[in-house]
Amino acid sequence: xxxxxxxxxxxxxxxxxxxxxxxxxxxxxxxxxxxxxxxxxxxxxxxxxxxxxxxxxxxxxxxxxxxxxxxxxxxxxxxxxxxxxxxxxxxxxxxxxxxxxxxxxxxxxxxxxxxxxxxxxxxxxxxxxxxxxxxxxxxxxxxxxxxxxxxxxxxxxxxxxxxxxxxxxxxxxxxxxxxxxxxxxxxxxxxxxxxxxxxxxxxxxxxxxxxxxxxxxxxxxxxxxxxxxxxxxxxxxxxxxxxxxxxxxxxxxxxxxxxxxxxxxxxxxxxxxxxxxxxxxxxxxxxxxxxxxxxxxxxxxxxxxxxxxxxxxxxxxxxxxxxxxxxxxxxxxxxxxxxxxxxxxxxxxxxxxxxxxxxxxxxxxxxxxxxxxxxxxxxxxxxx
Length: 384
Description:
- This protein is an all-alpha fold.
- The protein has helices at about 25-55, 60-65, 80-100, 105-125, 145-160, 165-185, 200-210, 225-245, 250-270, 285-310, 315-325, 325-335, 335-350, 355-375.
- It has 14 helices and no strands.
- Residues about 1-25 have low confidence and may be disordered.
């Protein structure tokens, strides 16, 4: 680990939030990354606790949107992981071009990509793969968001260094169509082709064959799904190309919005008309497009508000979070922020009735946020 660039340097050395920000910095990328991280690190619980103050039980529609779908379908909560991969891609055109302009060779970039991929896989095993148990019986080799990012980043990075934007687009189409073809037309012994059940599908069969005893035991798939992980990253890459282009700010907003609507329409058509449903567990092509659509729209909104209209104050907490996103992601999984918060504010919360849960959850979030703010203020940005 090192100082002076953020954990988001995996995603964005160019957009890591420094105190002295250049005028042309795309602050929206850091803010959107921080927004995504906020939900991962307690934001969901904070919103539910806030609503419960005024209405208990929480309305079913809100509760449903803040839970993962069991198989088919898509909720707001299902966007968190795809948005993370999308933001990784959005920053890649900035970081790659900057390093090439500084004189880095392709071989140096290849080495950096491989190094980061390995470290992300290790961190993924630390936070969710039980690496620190030091037991092969509990080790999950590929079962975490960080590892999905690593796979998508590795594939997208190597492609970006060798082909232009049109080639990148064609590669993304190839990944989406190829994944669809494999899942729908490759026959499984005893089941035939086109089976998309939680425990019976081609992606699951590949995971069981490759990972074997090191699978995580869930209905999520990883190895073959790396194809569509890469597509998710590439959709972000295209957003980064738009933000780096010579288009005017308002035109960039319009293009990002158009991309978003086009992806939503294409994902819906692929799901409904071509019978390849939106299933996050196996990262279907339709889900990849659907999630990319919402990600583009969020990027367009954040860019419009922050970088075009200059409304930045509201986004500062997210910028601070986004500047050390990997730090808080790992810390949230390893450190007992919620338990510490109960010790600090649990006594007060016990006297506040329905407000008590909100106070404890807010305390947990403030604990990690002020740590990140101190790092931000001192210009310490941890990276790998």
